[in-house]
Write a structure and sequence with these properties.
Bound molecules: zinc ion
Largest sheet: 5 strands, mixed
Number of helices: 9
Shape: globular
Helix content: 25-40%
Low-confidence stretches: none
Radius of gyration: 20 Å
Order of helices and strands: EEEHEEEHEHEEEHHHHEHEH
Strand content: 15-25%
Length: 311
Amino acid sequence: MIGAVDIGGTKIAVGIIDESGQVKCRAEAPTEAERGYAAGLQKICEMLRQVLSKCGPTIRGIGIGSTGMLDPIRGEWLDVDFLPGWEQNNPVDDLSRAFGVSTAMENDGDAGALAEAYWGSGKGKSRLVYVTVGTGIGGGIVLDGKLYRGVAGSHPEIGHHVMEASGPECSCGLRGCWEALAAGSCMEKWYEENCPVVGRNGERVSARQICELARDGNEFAKRTVEREGTYLGLGLANLIGMFVPEVIVLGGGMMRSADLYLGRIREVIRSGCRFVPAEKTEILLASLGEDANLIGAATVWQHRYVTTIPS
Ligand SMILES: [Zn+2]
């Protein structure tokens, strides 16, 4: 059994995962980042004890997947937008001490990539790119069966490659990043700014509602979905051009409506990528569902301390 901790800006989930990637039990609570790291750590420890008393009694180690910039080698946070004031704290040391087992931490995009490579749609593939499309675009890269890291253990941000130099401003400082054009929040913004008839009673129309409208045959919603598919396809075509992976696994909230985008995505990829065998790159949907982040966190420990990706 492995302890798993998934730390996001709004909630923290904790669980016990067995070594075939099944969640045995779980608990979750709001992050309340503003109360500071010490309160957060205390909450994580309490939740871990709670799940251990239910389905423990022992764990071999603890894996953490967390939002934000972090140093996975030292096990501490750097500057994290969603966890203000938590930087330079080291949950790896703190949880190791509290529970007497080895602990490892990765960015949650990397944790998701590892989970898919170990137990999900990408199982057994040694060259995989995981892309999660929600309010932002993130992911992780597995090359030759190992998590790819940048300099000093850094996590590459695949959502921030520039697609349109004069496109919308992006939180990273550039303009026209993939995320700024194709994330769910950007699709909503584009719809709002360009729709000839403004939403329902002036309310913001969510990505999910836009998809529903498109399914009902609403012409502008269909155009919005087509545009979304085009930008998703362009970003994936770029990734195929750069990595030519065996598989790209797509996850995140926006992929609940993947059937609306996949046709256009495949069309865009087919229309380009002439200089690589793009047809050999499978485009698959993530398969670990709601527990993906917890399974990912456990896989972080497994990848660091036990096994390479099973084939
Ligand atoms: Zn950006």
